[in-house]
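Entry 14. Ran structure prediction on the chain below.
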Amino acid sequence: MRKNIALLIFLLQAGFLFAQSGLKIAYIDMDYILENVPEYQEANNQLDAKVQKWRAEVEQKLNQVEQMKQALKQESPLLTKELIEEREDEIDYEVQQVVAYQQKRFGPQGDFITQKRQLIQPVQDQVFNAVQEYAIKRDFDYIFERSSDALMLFSANRHDISDQILKMIDRQSR
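Output, structure tokens:
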């Protein structure tokens, strides 16, 4: 919240300065740009394929645990208390293994985050470089990103340079 308030104050000050000194301000829509960059789509498809594989593995492991639980439930009248406790411990161990696997793949330091960074970061860097190059060539003072947490209450479409950035990226990738 503090970040949004500080940004709002900054934007109001920038608007005041703009009226007095002719600042050049524009914005981009990063989501729109990324959706239209083929390399990003390819990287996203690769990541989605890996995520689907990992989810299938998690589902398979959860199904195995469920089968163990059902088997224990059916066999429990025939088993001694010690055997029941032993099987329950096995089930608990398998549940812990599934949780550990989920953390390994989808946790904060997991493979998903690592893969996303490796696959998508180069494309995002390409966009940032194009924005910087565009800003320097066209002498912009500020370029904001519309779809982030930056609080943009209003902006006229004439300030949207997303298509120009896409064109630059397209030229660079040829």
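Strands lie at 25-28, 142-145. Will compare against last week's run tomorrow.
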